[in-house]
Design a protein that fits this description.
13 helices, 12 strands, 13% strand, Rossmann fold, NAD(P)-bd_dom_sf, alpha/beta, 7-stranded parallel sheet, D-isomer_2-hydroxyacid_DH, 5-stranded parallel sheet, NAD binding, NAD, single chain, D-isomer_DH_NAD-bd
Length: 343
């Protein structure tokens, strides 16, 4: 720590912050009050870089940047981009995953990277818990039958005691586990995560199981694992076939974790239901069968921060800038090795 109060050894002088993201995203993530707070911490370059970061106007701004505050819509930070940013010491991402943003050149330069993924986890977990409750109540099937008459009391489904299988104790998965534990429904909770010990799973309130057991026993399966070569099509035709009749697949993680064709066949048969905020491909082509099935709900990747919620990501990022200039540790620090096991 520097002997000058409030001055970081990384930034012995007041750093310059450059914002690079989509124009709409910048307006939502960094409203006037947050931009004003940024200006108390650093010299904020006017405007937002919204396009090619190797264009002349972008090069001019990046030449002075000590901190690059990024978000959705920011191009990948390649070696060519970084050549124009010789003073860059930190990238603060006002969004979730940095996999598509950060190239090897960022790590090789020793640039610090922070992500607001923790701030984005709350809305995703809230969405997942809401649709799990809908699935537990059989809401999609009941809504589809409503047009044929008021459903008989005897035929209605309740949530109490349902078995929910959680795939992935990620930052979102752990929030979902906490929400399931807190519910009065008395869910039986199963967890599959190869990186979580049995003892830790039990501390999270879940029974640790292998993926085959989870599929065989779960009435609702909710996916919270990262997309990696190992997790691609984790729920393939064989594993989907293990799910009991009437089960629901919930996916708010990445579409590629579920075999879309296999899920489509299972749902078309009427055996399974699905609530999908992410798909593979994304978006689904117009007229795709999943978009026409009454027991399937597909939403356009809205579980993460939307509208007024996006301000949370900006506030988190501004907080990270403050920690940088004060020489404090980053809450959302991302290390290169973490990307193999994170979204």
């Amino acid at each position: 720590m520097s002997d000058r109060p409030g001055i970081s050894p990384l930034f012995p002088e007041r750093p310059t912050v450059v914002v690079a993201m989509g124009a709409d995203e910048a307006e939502a993530a960094l409203p006037g009050d947050l931009r004003a707070e940024l200006e108390t911490l650093a010299t904020l370059t006017p405007g937002v870089l919204t396009g090619d970061l190797t264009a002349p106007e972008a090069r001019e701004a990046l030449a002075h940047a000590g901190i690059l505050l990024t978000g959705w819509g920011c191009p990948r930070l390649t070696e060519d981009v970084l050549r124009g940013a010789p003073r860059l010491r930190a990238v603060v991402h006002a969004a979730g995953s940095v996999k598509g943003l950060v190239s090897g050149a960022v790590w090789e330069r020793g640039i610090l990277v922070s992500s607001a993924a923790d701030a984005n986890a709350g809305p995703v977990a809230d969405y997942a818990l809401a649709v799990i409750a809908l699935a537990a109540k059989g809401a999609l099937a009941t809504a589809a039958a409503y047009g044929k008459g008021w459903p008989a009391f005897r035929g209605r489904q309740g949530a109490d005691g349902r078995t929910v299988g959680v795939i992935g104790a990620s930052r979102i998965g752990r929030r979902v586990l906490a929400g399931l534990r807190a519910s009065d429904a008395g869910y039986r909770i199963l967890l599959h995560d190869p990186y979580v010990t049995g003892v830790d799973a039990e501390r999270l309130g879940a029974e640790p199981v292998d993926l085959v057991s989870l599929c065989r026993r779960s009435e609702i399966v909710t996916v919270h694992a990262p997309e990696t070569p190992e997790t691609r099509r984790l729920l393939d035709a064989g594993r989907l076939a293990l799910l009991p009749d009437g089960a629901t697949v919930v996916n708010t993680a990445r579409g590629a974790l579920v075999d879309t064709d296999a899920l489509t066949r299972e749902c078309a048969s009427g055996r399974l239901s699905a609530i999908l905020d992410v798909t593979d491909p994304e978006p689904l082509p117009a007229g795709h069968p999943l978009l026409r099935m009454s027991q399937v709900l597909v939403t356009p990747h809205i579980a993460g921060a939307q509208g007024s919620e996006v301000r949370r990501l900006g506030a988190y990022a501004v907080g990270e800038v403050g920690r940088l200039v004060r020489g404090e540790g980053l809450w959302g620090l991302v290390r290169r090795g973490m990307l193999d096991r994170s979204a």
